[in-house]
UniProtKB/TrEMBL annotation:
<keyword id="KW-0807">Transducer</keyword>
<feature type="transmembrane region" description="Helical">
    <location>
        <begin position="274"/>
        <end position="296"/>
    </location>
</feature>
<keyword id="KW-0472">Membrane</keyword>
<feature type="transmembrane region" description="Helical">
    <location>
        <begin position="27"/>
        <end position="50"/>
    </location>
</feature>
<feature type="transmembrane region" description="Helical">
    <location>
        <begin position="198"/>
        <end position="227"/>
    </location>
</feature>
<keyword id="KW-1003">Cell membrane</keyword>
<feature type="transmembrane region" description="Helical">
    <location>
        <begin position="239"/>
        <end position="262"/>
    </location>
</feature>
<dbReference type="InterPro" id="IPR000276">
    <property type="entry name" value="GPCR_Rhodpsn"/>
</dbReference>
<keyword id="KW-0552">Olfaction</keyword>
<keyword id="KW-0297">G-protein coupled receptor</keyword>
<feature type="transmembrane region" description="Helical">
    <location>
        <begin position="104"/>
        <end position="126"/>
    </location>
</feature>
<dbReference type="GO" id="GO:0004984">
    <property type="term" value="F:olfactory receptor activity"/>
</dbReference>
<keyword id="KW-0812">Transmembrane</keyword>
<keyword id="KW-0716">Sensory transduction</keyword>
<dbReference type="InterPro" id="IPR000725">
    <property type="entry name" value="Olfact_rcpt"/>
</dbReference>
<dbReference type="Pfam" id="PF13853">
    <property type="entry name" value="7tm_4"/>
</dbReference>
<dbReference type="GO" id="GO:0050890">
    <property type="term" value="P:cognition"/>
</dbReference>
Length: 311
């Protein structure tokens, strides 16, 4: 009787294809990617500079905004340079360790941004519902603790994914039809069972992003109830106006993600390249548009931007 020994090869190098089906359009697709990335870098860097160098903008709302745009820079830098290298140089080769590092920063930064948006909703709630207690509640000490808590939550929940992926044997395929690595997109190429990966990823999503959305919704219900109880129409208008920028950012951040999830769940006949383009919109749009929205809708930032750029 002969015993056959099979050696399972686990891939340590993967190949990102970019946007399959649109390879001949990669050069043209790279143009909006490049413009969006440069706009995000310049706009967010300018916003951080203005907030940190202007004492009048050292309030809680602007410090939280500074955290948000900093996360935007990390999120876009984690993905766009890799996509551009594929589009321009066909350099889609990526090691397993680098792939895991990339998805770690993408997922953790996304959770960080969600947490920051929740804290900004809490900030608006205190400012509108308890204006006299605003400065005593949101002290610098509390802001520092909130900052640490947000990043501990994001990195702490995503860190186990490194070990969940490292335990897998990737013997099915090493061709990834995407512009960047993500958790389940990488795990599905493993020969092992990925049930733990799926359930852990689902649990993290529910306990972070979905919970944040629910709490943000509750915050704005309370804010709207307080606003419509105000006797003066001008006071109501001013209160709603202070929330305008934040509401736009919330829609911009969660909207594409929800739409992408729905198309992946129900849009089975939608071409794969559409799903990949939508996934990239989720990454590209918020970092590019956040500084523009705050620059247009927030008078204090608008004035400081004009002062920096034109004086």
């Amino acid at each position: 009787m002969t015993t056959l020994n099979y050696t399972v090869v686990s891939h340590t190098v993967f190949h990102l294809l970019g946007i399959p089906g649109l390879e001949d359009q990669h050069m043209w697709i790279s143009i909006p990617f490049f413009i969006s990335y440069i706009t995000a870098l310049l706009g967010n860097s300018l916003l951080i500079f203005i907030i940190l160098t202007r004492p009048s903008l050292h309030g809680p709302m602007y410090l939280f905004l500074c955290m948000l745009v900093g996360a935007d820079i990390v999120l876009s830098t984690s993905t766009v340079p890799q996509a551009l290298s594929i589009f321009w140089f066909h350099a889609g080769e990526i090691s397993l360790d680098r792939c895991i590092t990339q998805l770690f920063f993408i997922h953790s930064t996304f959770i960080s941004e969600s947490g920051i948006l929740l804290v900004m909703a809490f900030d608006r709630y205190i400012a509108i519902c308890y204006p006299l207690r605003y400065t005593t509640v949101l002290t610098n000490s509390l802001i520092g603790k909130i900052r640490v808590g947000i990043f501990l939550r994001s990195y702490g929940t995503i860190f186990p994914i490194i070990f969940l992926l490292k335990r897998l044997t990737f013997c099915k395929n090493n061709i990834i039809p995407h512009t960047y690595c993500e958790h389940i997109g990488l795990a599905k190429y493993a020969c092992n069972s990925i049930r733990v990966n799926i359930w852990y990823g689902f649990s993290v999503l529910i306990l972070t992003v979905v919970l944040d959305v629910v709490l943000i919704f509750v915050s704005y219900v309370l804010i709207l109830r307080a606003v419509f109880r105000m006797p003066s129409q001008d006071a109501r208008h001013k209160a709603l106006n202070t929330c305008g920028s934040h509401v736009c950012i919330i829609i911009l951040f969660y909207g594409p993600g929800i739409f992408t999830t729905l198309t992946q769940r129900f849009g089975r006949h939608i071409p794969p390249h559409i799903h990949i383009l939508l996934a990239n919109v989720c990454i590209l749009a918020p970092p590019m548009l956040n500084p523009i929205i705050y620059g247009i809708k927030t008078k204090q930032i608008q004035e400081q931007m004009v002062h920096v750029l034109f004086t």
